[in-house]
Amino acid sequence: MSHFRSNVRDVKFTLFDLLGLDHLLPADLDRDTVEAMIDEVDRLSRNVLADSYADGDRNPPVFDPETSSVRLPEPFRQAFRAYLDGGWWRLDVPEELGGTAAPRALWWALMELVQGANAPVFMYSAGPSMAGLLYRLGTPEQQRTARTMIEKSWAATMVLTEPEAGSDVGAGRTVARRQPDGSWHIEGVKRFITSGEHDLAENIVHFVLARPEGAAAGTKGLSMFVVPKFLFDRETGELLDRNGVHATNVERKMGIKVSTTCELTFGAKQPAVGWLVGDRHEGIAQMFKVIEGARMQVGVKAIATLSTGYLNARAYAAERVQGSDLTRRADPSAPRVTIDQHPDVRRMLMLQKCYAEGLRALYLFTAAQLDLGDPALNDLLLPLVKGVGSERSFEMLTLSLQTLGGSGFLQDHPMEQYLRDTKIDTLYEGTTGIQGQDLFFRKIARDRGAVLDRLLDRIDDPELAEAVAEVRAMTGMMLGWDDDARKDPAEVYRIGAHTTRLLLSLGDLLVGWLLRCQARLCEGREDGFARGKVAAAQFFTATVLPELAARRRIMERTGPELMEVPDDAF
Ligand code: ST9
Ligand code: FAD
């Protein structure tokens, strides 16, 4: 039995009934075709992709420091190959490179299924998407390289982090020295690079941030280079010499063990030759095009795992018999019931359902903004998909495990691996702390809340009026502190103490809103799916949204105390 339990019905309901995907399809795609695509990716995910999920955890890749090479386990290789052969990556690639035009919402819906089954398959298969980016940003010669990457199924990485430059990417020390032939030599050590070394493709193209000699400090002085593992003939794509970038370590991790996380050393033994992307020094802006995609990917990964975690918990709770009905708790002769009859278990299940389905609606709504031509709203929502998606999914997966009691702690069930594999989602691609700052300083304060107001104005549900008012009060307060900080810089600490709280609160409001929109579409229907939508919206409105008032009061009472606590008092 596959560990992966998908919720295709909810995916289709959200895409078509909630978001009206029918109206966003290109001429050559109709609803039947899209539904068939979802069904096919679902089949692939539940079977071939899910089959190697546990094996990749128990038998992780083996690193040979002598040759700086990595061997991946065979079952995972099969899953990866099956995914690549399916050609689904074409939906994320420009048509000029053999791609297929498709709505972003459909792409991410399909990638929810892939990632719920085996997220590292998707992570290793970033090559075509990165080739697409190189095609859009690159020189004509780099556009040819992009074609080669696709034709030869080369892999790709995003290379930012260094030992002293994690959240603070601008602290990076890796340097780039220009060569007379127009190429660059990269020197430095990068850390934590996903898919930095493996044997799934004949070549790996690293997209690297490095600082040209003499360039400014900070992120604005960084440029983006493509640095291949093997040099190649730019006309034919034929592999030439090994380039001077080598994996010098592969980390041992808590989860996503089959995904290699590498230290990459550039230019230690021989030059690591690279080319400036687009022949323009716009590295951080170029890399953020990748980061935006990867933040979406990470949020969807977490939400996908919560969904399968919840569905596994629900199935277990419907079968596990323990205890009697609460009304007969003092009667030892009362019949034993399945645990899903206990109010406390129902509380856990309903909360998981609310977040799993509400966050699915949130990421699909976010993706659909690109299809609808509203990139500013997509920008505002991205830190929520990544930050709230990962935090709430991890939190809710602890309830999925809890639902199984002691059995949840065992490797007989996927829950413990889900939890270990999902923890990373609150960390990489910008920690939750960074997402909160991105949301407030970049996405709200810069336009004085204009895009946020536009979104909040759409929430015209009277049942949510109070929750909307709480969020408006929170952002109003923080914008006020932002103004005050112009005179007294220390006022910004008050903002910094609440950016994560705002992130989670706005996330809860949007989850509540989307659940209620779904429920409205189901009113009057008697089937279980529809009743579930109505029940979820009621439960979330009644039990989660009232917390926003307390959070707003906490903010109001914030003074400078936290920063005044002496360091040795912690
Ligand atoms: C990582 C990978 O963790 C983990 C998972 C890998 C999975 C597989 C890999 C491949 C998957 C790929 C799939 C999709 C592929 C798609 C490809 C193609 C489409 N939005 O505020 P400032 C820019 S990787 C847009 O002053 P600081 C902007 O240009 C490691 N742009 O920042 C801005 O200039 P301006 C991930 C943004 O104080 C400039 O940056 N590491 C945004 O200098 C400077 O901005 C991290 O994520 C934005 N939201 O630096 C680092 N924000 O203002 C986290 C900034 O003029 N740290 N820019 O427009 C941060 O994000 C920091 O806040 C910082 C601060 C570095 C930006
Ligand atoms: P730090 O930046 O040291 O953060 C530590 C804590 O301090 C966090 O809680 C953070 O929120 C907080 N913090 C830091 N700065 C601030 C601030 N200014 N304000 C408030 N709080 C702050 N990187 C790549 O380039 N490519 C990859 O492919 C890649 N893959 C990864 C895979 C794995 C498994 C891991 C673990 C990491 C990967 N990373 C990758 C790196 C990842 O993006 C960083 O780990 C992440 O950005 C955080 O940096 P850090 O670990 O140095 O933590």
Automatic annotation (TrEMBL):
- Keyword terms: FAD, Flavoprotein, Oxidoreductase
Q: Show where the Acetyl-CoA dehydrogenase-like C-terminal domain sits.
A: 463-565
- Gene Ontology MF annotations: oxidoreductase activity
* Acyl-CoA oxidase/dehydrogenase middle domain boundaries: 158-266
Q: Domain Acyl-CoA dehydrogenase/oxidase N-terminal: where?
A: 77-144
Q: One matching Pfam family, short form?
A: Acyl-CoA_dh_N
Q: Which family does it belong to?
A: Belongs to the acyl-CoA dehydrogenase family.
Name of the protein described by the UniProt record: Acyl-CoA dehydrogenase
